[in-house]
Design brief:
Elements lengths: L9 H7 L11 H11 L6 H10 L10 H27 L10 H24 L12 H14 L6 H26 L6 E2 L2 E2 L7
Helix pairs in contact: 3-4, 4-5, 6-7
Length: 202
């Protein structure tokens, strides 16, 4: 006869299994996750600028982090080049143009709308509403109220000054919130603003 072997109950067997330790930063699982995020499709500056200007009036949808920040880098490069050109023309022996700021005005007018729309889409990409961009403009409303009071010869009251300072506080907090949102990673999958641009093949 074979001798019966005693086996611990299932719960006891589960308890005897070695517990997997959490992978520290730099561990194998962490490196795999980092490699997967790095393998996600990204953009070059040329592709980002083409995409942003191609969606000139489009506020809907989402924009990945690379698209937004490459476009910001493009704006900075153009501003540096225009500033260098202005400096050369200002201190060159040749006569300066009658309106040296005209290139800056043209560039601002042509890039303001696409810059605004890509910012809205970048906030959509992290699950936030584009209406957050209104809050940093709230102090302008307070300045308009105080300015109208000053035009009529009436000094600004304490209540008006307090409201203006409160609006400035809201603007500062919302600006920090927006900056954090622009730096965050894309939400995976589809959120309420549409599918992730990192997962779209087209």
């Amino acid at each position: 006869m074979e001798r019966a072997t005693l086996q611990p109950p299932p719960d006891a067997r589960e308890a005897e299994r070695p517990v997997e330790k959490a992978q520290p930063i730099g561990g194998k699982a962490w490196r795999q996750e980092l490699a997967q995020s790095a393998a996600a499709p990204s953009m070059t500056m040329r592709e980002a600028v083409k995409s942003v200007f191609g969606k000139y009036w489009r506020f809907s949808g989402r924009a990945q982090r690379a698209e937004y920040w490459w476009f910001v880098a493009f704006l900075l490069v153009v501003l540096i080049c225009l500033s260098a050109l202005f400096y050369v023309m200002q201190f060159n022996s040749q006569p300066a143009p009658q309106d040296p700021f005209l290139p800056f005005v043209i560039f601002f007018c042509s890039s303001f709308v696409p810059g605004l729309t890509v910012t809205v889409r970048r906030l959509h990409d992290v699950g936030e509403s584009g209406w957050w961009l209104i809050f940093p403009l709230l102090p302008l409303a307070g300045l308009i109220v105080i300015g109208r009071a000053a035009d009529t010869g009436i000094a600004a009251s304490r209540a008006q000054v307090f409201i203006f300072l409160f609006l400035c506080l809201i603007a500062i907090v919302s600006t920090i919130f927006i900056a954090i949102g622009l730096l965050k990673k894309s939400q995976p999958g589809t959120n309420r603003f549409g599918p992730s641009p990192l997962e779209q093949t087209s």
